[in-house]
Amino acid sequence: MTIADEDRSVLTILVNDSTISTTEVLDTYLTQAGYKIINKRYPFATGAEKTTLDIPEEYKPLWYELSATLIAKRGAEGESSHNENGVSRSYRDEATILADIISLGEFYVL
After folding, report:
1. What is the value of pTM for the model shown?
2. Interatomic CA distance for residues 61 and 80, integer angstroms
3. At what angle are helices 23-41 and 60-72 packed, to 10 degrees?
4. I want to staple 81 with a disulfide (CB 3.0 to 4.6 A). Which of 18, 42, 47, 90 is the partner?
5. H or E element at residue 81
């Protein structure tokens, strides 16, 4: 999966958090979200094939959204909502974001 500086810039703007501006942190979340999208898009591809795939252009907005969602949930993994001292937070479900991805029935390496 190829991550460009433009991808990092978009995610930095979406998250608006100066504590995650390092390339390594951004790349980690972009990679994690990217593999979730690739697994949904190409469910029958092997592990080796999946590592060579890039995010299709039509799914880049979902890629950024999923990456930002993962960053927002740091420290609250596994929770769907959280209440503390009168502050209530609810997190968007990853499956809701991934629902817009159309899976391909077969995978061919050209």
Report:
1. 0.78
2. 22
3. 120
4. 90
5. strand 81-84
Between CA 89 and CA 57 the distance in angstroms is 31
Rounded-to-integer distance, Cα 83 and Cα 45, Å: 40
Identify whether the C-beta of residue 42 lies closer than 8 Å to the C-beta of residue 9.
Answer: no
Amino acid letter, 62: L
pLDDT tens digits for 71-86?
Answer: 887 766 767 777 888 8
The burial of 44, by beta-carbon neighbours within 10 Å (0-12 exposed, 13-18 middle, 19 or more buried), is given as exposed
> In 3-state terms, the chain is what percent helix, strand and coil (to 5)?
55, 5, 40
Specify which residues 90 forms β-bridges with. 81
Give me the amino acid identity at 3.
Answer: I
